[in-house]
Structures are given as structure tokens and as C-alpha cells.
Design brief:
Largest sheet: 5 strands, parallel
CATH topology of the largest domain: Rossmann fold
CATH class of the largest domain: Alpha Beta
Structural class: alpha/beta
Shape: globular
Strand content: 5-15%
Helix content: 25-40%
CATH architecture of the largest domain: 3-Layer(aba) Sandwich
Number of strands: 7
Bound molecules: NADP nicotinamide-adenine-dinucleotide phosphate
Length: 209
């Protein structure tokens, strides 16, 4: 099965629309961005488009202005959006997690680590891999659910997967033409978790206003 992000995102957007309609003051998102980081700039524009479509204006300022802005630290902390999007995707497509072995490639504070915590809360057995992990293919083979979040294109090929697995290609690491005929479920890089991540972000905005 192809686990695309569009459908669970649409489900979430309808809740966001309802919430925005019920609010007395319009919510807004304030984003600090690095002008040198082009992919982050594209992502910001897609967030702005989604925000506009759902009544949430997104105000963007370069990171250099961030230190001059009082009160940012007082904002409530929420779960990192991509980690939450991965869990929501599994929920939406009813992929069982409890008791399953999830292997996460990547240990960043925004994706790998928070995702491991969310999955542990759902009784998964979690292995986190990183750039110093030895024999990655054999660890990947042991996974029921394999989350690829390193951003290293080509890292996960047919030698890393087996039938029956669910693979979430968060960072574009998996060679999709090689893994698609083998795994049971694939959440592709394009049209996958990214679409849902934006919806999760806007939902957090409506929750914290
Ligand atoms: P990051 O902070 O650069 O972390 C990358 C992680 O991958 C690190 O933990 C690194 O290990 C590990 N790694 C690098 N090379 C590896 C290798 N050869 N084998 C095993 N692990 C390796 O990146 P991030 O912010 O977590 O994002 C990861 C990827 O997901 C990026 O491509 C990003 O663009 C993408 N992303 C996609 C979405 C989406 O919505 N689709 C959202 C967020 C991020 P070390 O810790 O040892 O360096």
C-alpha cells in the first residue's frame, strides 16, 4: 500500500478549519528562517500557502532578527511536527505499532529522538541508528517499521529491506524504485510525511493560541 500524506493531512485540516472558525481571535504563526537555507525557504513558502488557505497567516522574519524579539522562549513547547506526523501517518493507515520493532535512521532532536519517544509510548521496541552505526543493512532488516530520516540519498536500497515491512521515507534516503516491489507499505518521500508535517504545524498553532 502507498501511504501518502495527503489524506491524513486533509482529515487534520478539516479539524483545523473547525477550530479556527470557533476562535474569537485569528491565530497566526511567527517563523524565523535562515535566508541561506534554500530548502527551508521552499518549506516556509509551502507553510505560508497552507496557512493562508486555512485562515492562519504566517509571518516570516530572518533568524538574525530572532534575538531582538522578546518573549519567544515563553511559547509553549509542542512535539516536533515531523515526528508527530510519522505517528499520525501510522495511525491513519492503521499500521500496528505496539510490540513491533521500529528502526529509525537518524538521531536528530527534531525527528529521530522525539519519534522514538512517541513510539515507545505506544509500546514499540525502538532502535535508533546514526552515522556511526555498524552494519546498517542487517539492523534495517530486523525492522517491522523502518523510518529513514538521514537525508542521505541512496542509503537504503534493496539490501536493507524485506517483505512485510512498512517504510517511511522521511529524508529521501530510500531508493524507492528498489524498495517499492519488496516492502508491504511505503510512505514515499514526495507526497509523504511532508504534507502531513505542515498540517501538524498548523494544528499546533490553533492549539497554542
Ligand atoms: P539531521 O539533523 O541532519 O540528522 C541526520 C541524522 O542522520 C543524524 O543523526 C546523522 O547521524 C544520521 N546519519 C547521517 N548519515 C548517516 C548514515 N550514513 N547512516 C546512518 N545515519 C546517518 O537531519 P534531520 O533534521 O533529522 O532531517 C533528516 C532528513 O529528513 C533531512 O533530509 C530532512 O530534510 C528530512 N526532513 C523531512 C521532513 C519531511 O517533512 N518530509 C521533515 C524534517 C526533515 P549523526 O547524528 O551521527 O550525525
Amino acid at each position: 500500500m502507498l501511504l501518502t500524506g495527503k489524506q491524513p493531512a486533509e482529515q487534520l485540516y478539516s479539524k483545523i478549519d473547525e477550530r479556527v472558525r470557533s476562535m474569537t481571535e485569528a491565530p497566526g504563526l511567527f517563523a524565523l528562517y535562515d535566508p541561506e537555507d534554500k530548502p527551508a525557504g521552499w518549506y516556509l513558502r509551502s507553510i505560508q500557502r497552507a496557512g493562508e488557505a486555512h485562515g492562519i497567516p504566517v509571518y516570516a522574519r530572518p533568524l538574525s532578527e530572532g534575538t531582538a524579539l522578546p518573549g519567544l522562549k515563553a511559547y509553549p513547547r509542542t512535539t516536533p511536527c515531523t515526528a508527530e506526523a510519522c505517528v499520525r501517518l501510522l495511525d491513519y493507515y492503521k499500521v500496528p505499532v505496539s510490540g513491533k520493532h521500529v528502526v529509525i535512521l537518524g538521531r536528530s532532536l527534531t525527528v529521530g529522538r522525539p519519534l522514538a519517544m512517541l513510539l515507545l509510548d505506544r509500546n514499540a521496541t525502538v532502535t535508533i541508528c546514526h552515522s556511526k552505526t555498524e552494519d546498517l543493512p542487517s539492523i534495517c532488516h530486523q525492522a517491522d517499521i523502518l523510518v529513514c530520516a538521514t537525508g542521505r540519498e541512496g542509503l537504503v536500497g534493496k539490501d536493507c529491506v524485506r517483505p512485510g515491512q512498512t517504510l517511511i521515507n522521511v529524508g529521501g534516503d530510500a531508493v524507492e524504485e528498489e524498495v517499492t516491489p519488496i516492502v508491504e507499505n511505503l510512505c514515499p518521500f514526495k507526497g509523504g510525511v511532508g504534507a502531513l508535517t505542515t498540517a501538524v504545524l498548523l494544528q499546533h498553532v490553533t492549539e497554542t493560541n
